[in-house]
Amino acid sequence: MRKPRATAATSGPDGLAPAGDVAAIVAGTHGDPFAVLGVQEAGKGFVARCFVPDAEFVTAYTLTGKEIGELSRRDDAGFFEGKISIRKRQPLRYHARNAGGDWWLTDPYSFGPVLGPMDDYYMAEGSHLRLFDKLGAHIIDHEGATGVHFAVWAPNARRVSVVGAFNDWDGRRHTMRDRKDTGIWELFIPDLVAGQPYKFEIIGPDGVRLPLKADPFAFESELRPATASVTAPPMAHQWGDEAHRGYWRKADPRREAISIYEVHAGSWQRRDDGTFLSWDELAARLIPYVVDTGFTHIEFLPISEHPYDPSWGYQTTGLYAPTARFGDPDGFARFVDGAHRAGIGVILDWVPAHFPVDEHGLVKFDGTALYEHADPRQGFHPDWNTAIYNFGRREVVSFLVNNALFWAEKYHVDGLRVDAVASMLYLDYSRKAGEWIPNEKGGRENLQAVSFLQKMNKELYGHHPGVMTIAEESTSWPKVSRPVHEGGLGFGFKWNMGFMHDTLEYLSKEPIFRKHHHNDITFGLVYAFSENFVLPLSHDEVVHGKGTLLHKMAGDDWQKFATLRAYYAFMWGYPGKKLLFMGQEFAQRREWSEERALDWNLLEFAPHRGVWQTVRDLNYLYRSRPALHARDCEPEGFSWLIVDDRDNSVFAWLRSAPDGSPIAVIANFTPVPRENYRVPLPQAGKWREIINTDAADYGGSGMGNGGMVEASGEGGGVSATMLLPPLSTIMLEFVTD
């Protein structure tokens, strides 16, 4: 139900505003200040009214500088009014004076609205796909003046004002216009420039002033611990990445080499004094490193504005603002462009599942549960003490869908990895009986979240071909990476959490016991093609006491390094796209912490350098051999060669694709060399050893097959007899004539 509104002011015969309206403006309680302030009709002429605290005298001028009238002070708090000599309604400037000096200001209440009826229509319908061009703070030219247009959704508020240092954080001075049908409040503040901190002062439906709120659509924010939004200039960056974007627009990512380097921007490297690198410094260091190491994409942990460093960005308060930790928004645009020019894609970790309850954020935004559910059984996340978005509200869905489109359009990002999808899909996620509300059909599925995810994927893929979405989804929900028109959620890819869990569990066992856990490796191929999978060895595996990947491997130090190298080659030969968290490419020993940089000095030591060289060579092979990537998501590209040799802990399979030579992947997960080991192969002839993780250059024992094996058809079926080095993976590529 809409709250009652103050009636429009009427001027008396002398053109004076009613005393009640003057008092309400001064108190900041008037329901419609545009009916009082600015230019108002009075008989056959016009009066001007303004609220300018601290002024003793005010003279009105046109924007062209013509003096049109002296205003009288009706209230000592700063309410002025008076007749002005103009023939038609127009924006005004005021010259204000007091004993301490004088100043000029342009009257925001003398300007008309910026938003139009079509904006109202599409916003109310929840179908507006360019909200980021309408809401938030935009520097524009309007009715002859330059300033900032503010617009925010707060349908249950009694009053919304823009506050900042420019008005002494006084909510009475820039009260916004209420577009009653949509719940959008807007105000054009002339003469305001870029770089100004601001917030919204909101009076809730109960008349209580809320803690000041940051702008949900803010495009720039203050550096924490400050929490204000900042008026941002229009993006000035000139893009030069059309070749990169054009390539991916035409590509089928399922058949492309995708090897992702997951990065926490605040702790990959730091300056000598421990402070964060800027985006430009990151570009100068990170992009060449990723190119050299052979990855195809950088995936950043969330870079949207967030108040708390240890949240790693997953508790975001500013979905539309790149965090101020690394510089201004244009700096991030330069980083993405630089990555693209170097042939590297940029994926953002994106968090539409929940948001923190910091008072300056979205929680109880207009005094009511607006973005979240009111009922904690639906609106509160017990795992993270956060609020859950109300996916049943079209304005909230529109806010989130627009954010996905925003990153793709404004910052040219190549993809979104969507965090915590499982928590969105199930109403009973991390909840006991009685702590959740079933859906309309009595089930546990969050049908509104399903609808949101489908809409987000349809709009993103529809408007930005070449951009991909990746779901972090840990359950057996069907068709996560299938198109919406086939009943799927519409994601391009899904993280294969089962692969990560099973393989790490297997390799944590002492080699002598691995034969009892053989199925941990083979089971994954039962479902490997049920989705388009990314194989993730992510940040989640190297925090909270879990240790690093190196320390998850069983055995002494030599065995740990050997097993890790073998594991990486096993993974790079396994069907699915690849993801590795920063530091694991050189076998970081210390568990990751967001408070410090990686231990880059480790690259000075041969075992660590050997792991890095292994990853680098694997990336090169993966990208250059179609057999290793072109059928990552299709069963036709995989066939077992050896699946049941549990006693020796040996696995072998064939990867193939129409455009490349077949490649055999053979892993020996014991420290025992297997001499004269027979491996079935599909073709007789020479097979070149294209990688051997036991090579001396990698830090291994140097055992191998002299770079080549010969397969023959003797003894029934084609096979080759070879040496399998200890704790190693080798790849053999068929040599065509």
From TrEMBL:
Catalytic activity entry: Transfers a segment of a (1->4)-alpha-D-glucan chain to a primary hydroxy group in a similar glucan chain
Gene Ontology terms: biological process: glycogen biosynthetic process
Presence of keyword Nucleotide-binding: no
Domain annotation Glycosyl hydrolase family 13 catalytic: ranges: 262-629
Active site residues per record: D419 (nucleophile), E472 (proton donor)
Pathway named in the protein's UniProt entry: Glycan biosynthesis; glycogen biosynthesis
Its job: Catalyzes the formation of the alpha-1,6-glucosidic linkages in glycogen by scission of a 1,4-alpha-linked oligosaccharide from growing alpha-1,4-glucan chains and the subsequent attachment of the oligosaccharide to the alpha-1,6 position.
Family from the record: Belongs to the glycosyl hydrolase 13 family. GlgB subfamily.
Subunit text: Monomer.
Protein name: 1,4-alpha-glucan branching enzyme GlgB
Species of provenance: Mesorhizobium plurifarium
Upper lineage: Bacteria, Pseudomonadati, Pseudomonadota, Alphaproteobacteria, Hyphomicrobiales
